[in-house]
From TrEMBL, chain A:
This is Dehydratase. Residues 9-105 form the MaoC-like domain. It holds the Pfam family MaoC_dehydratas. InterPro entries: Fatty_acid_synthase, HotDog_dom_sf, MaoC-like_dom. GO terms for molecular function: fatty acid synthase activity. Signal peptide: none annotated. GO terms for biological process: fatty acid biosynthetic process. GO terms for cellular component: fatty acid synthase complex. It comes from Mesobacillus boroniphilus.
UniProtKB/TrEMBL annotation, chain B:
This is MaoC family dehydratase. It comes from Mesobacillus boroniphilus. Residues 5-131 form the FAS1-like dehydratase domain. It holds the Pfam family FAS1_DH_region. It comes from the Bacteria. SUPFAM superfamilies: Thioesterase/thiol ester dehydrase-isomerase.
Amino acid sequence: MSSLAELKVGESIKEIQLDPVDRITLIKYAGASGDYNPIHTIDEEAKKVGLPGIIAHGMWTMGNLSKLFTDFYGEGFIQDYTIRFKGMVFLNDVVTLQAELAEENENILRFNVRAVNQNGNEVIKGDVLYHRYAS
Amino acid sequence: MFKEHIGKQSNKVKNIVERGAVKKFAEAIGDLHPIFIDEETGKNSRYNRNIAPPTFPRVFDYGTIEGLNLPNKGLIHGEQTYHYERPLLVGEEITCYSVIKNYFEKKGTQGEMGFLVLESFGEDESGKIVFSSTQTVIITEAVRKVLIG
């Protein structure tokens, strides 16, 4: 889809399934974001706080989710992006990103967005208000 | 424990939306779209520049809030919001700061939890707010004990 204008309420942007989460991805995100909390990169540190192993940064998942909208920056932008972190993302998890158009109000499109793991459990959930430029 | 800090603001810090940092960030979230990294695409876009992904402000320095000592371990990120007036442009200077918006405690299944709400802002060179963000940090009982003790 080249334009969000074709999308109707109740329809979704084409979902994206991510590759299984691997260690290097989280190390890269730590470096790029400056978030070096060791529970995301060092097994021993994750275990110390009672986790079975390292977990992805919530902000990594939130960062990924926004790419559902990247193709549409020509016609608008993400005005509001609200996320609740609901579950943890572990190594080898396969995360799928989804966005459904929930409401359309003149130049504001409200999407329900979420990322689910391979078991169908929501790991993050929220909404995006996409501001469409007046043509 | 953090109640007395409500309303406190950090010092303002100037940040640059640096091209290399944007590229590295876009790569880290698997979103190497030309609008973020390709100069030609940026020039030909309505922004006349490349832009940064919406969660890029995670990278910025927001200064220090005096007296607020958060541990770097054992915090849970509960919620996060971003509000934008327009996208961030690659190369621009953004002045950032944070304010402690709220602190409250709740009893949960894992004991007494603290909720710290931080609001952050980014202003452009003319002093206009480009984005604001709100972050809710959950401080678990185990961490609270360490902080008090």
